[in-house]
Design a protein that fits this description.
Layout lengths: L9 E6 L3 H13 L3 E7 L2 H12 L1 H14 L19 E4 L8 H8 L7 E6 L5 H6 L4 E4 L4 H23 L9 E6 L2 E6 L3 E7 L2 E6 L2 E5 L3 H8 L4 E5 L2 E4 L3 E7 L2 E6 L6 E4 L2 H20 L2
Parallel strand pairs: 1-2, 1-3, 3-4, 4-5
Antiparallel strand pairs: 6-7, 8-9, 8-12, 9-10, 11-12, 13-14, 14-15
Length: about 290
């Protein structure tokens, strides 16, 4: 597709230090009709230079016009400092690169007021959690498949379509987090809102949803801290539950248990003695808050 296309499609930046992989990624992106322009960079320095140039495009045009009128040398953009905004919509980024790696580069993007979306494209399936930590929208594994790339673009476009009304209104709660889950070479994105409870399995955690369960390499203690404000509460050393889904707390022969959900998908989980009081307090507060809002 012609890079001068002004049809309103996505402007994307492909970053990979391996030239064949970079060319393949750029080719596949150019084949998608939703992509208007594909830029390429072979390392983090070049990527930052591209973002700097695109971030200051309007300012640069004004500066160049003034410089021409005054007979001065034309200014060139510097990657030393990124502007707050860029017209690059998405960066498709390799993780392992010499110098600044992909994860570090994504953190640099995070300093921008309106950073581009980030999709990682990598041969390594062990960095999905790290990618999730820096806010990646998707995690694609090499060799890259056209249908997975198309799905990533679907997700980006869907996010952009809903971003404006969300930003216009003052958010009342945190954005729903998405957890990348690797299974047989496929990355599935599980939203936090779909998780009913979490079960500890060593240094891993199993996310239980109505569609099944998913093992992720995140300790239960990390999810407890991160999801506390989203309504998740620790009830046992091995369990974290979504408080709004608790339908019953009762005393059994061996101690308290909670029922999570209703119908055939109901789960019954143990509550340890040390967590019982906090669970009761959280349930009472949640009930009072619900009644006060009626």
């Amino acid at each position: 597709m012609d890079s001068t296309d002004s049809s309103g499609g996505l402007v994307v930046l492909a970053v990979d230090d391996e030239q064949p992989a970079l060319e393949e990624l750029a080719f596949l992106l150019n084949e998608d009709p939703r992509v208007a322009e594909v830029l390429k960079a072979s390392d983090a320095t070049e990527a930052l230079r591209q973002l700097s140039a695109r971030s200051t495009r309007e300012h640069s045009h004004a500066s160049m016009s003034a410089a021409r009128a005054a007979g001065q040398p034309l200014p060139t953009p510097s990657p030393a400092r990124l502007a707050d905004r860029t017209d690059i919509d998405v960066v498709f980024l390799d993780i392992r690169m010499p110098g600044l790696d992909g994860l570090e580069l994504a953190r640099v993007f995070g300093s921008m007021l309106q950073p581009p979306e980030v999709v990682f494209v990598t041969a390594h399936d062990d960095r999905a959690v790290d990618a999730y930590e820096v806010g990646a929208k998707d995690y694609l594994l090499k060799p890259l498949r056209e249908e997975r790339l198309a799905a990533a673009l679907d997700r980006i476009i869907s996010n952009r379509a809903t971003a404006a009304p969300v930003e216009a209104a003052a958010p009342e709660r945190d954005e729903d987090e998405v957890i990348p889950v690797e299974l047989a070479g496929t990355t599935k994105l599980v939203p936090r809102s779909a998780v009913r409870y979490v079960e500890a399995q060593g240094d891993y955690a199993r996310l239980h949803t109505t569609d099944g369960s998913h093992l992720v390499r995140i300790p239960l203690s990390v999810l407890e801290d991160r999801w506390r404000d989203a309504g998740f509460v620790r009830i046992h050393r091995s369990f974290l539950v979504a408080l709004p889904l608790v339908t019953e707390l009762r005393l059994s022969g061996s101690g308290y248990v909670v029922r999570v959900g209703s119908g055939p998908d109901t789960a019954e989980l143990p509550v340890s003695r040390r967590h019982t009081r906090e669970l009761k307090d959280r349930l009472v507060r949640a009930t009072k808050q619900a009644w006060s809002q009626r």
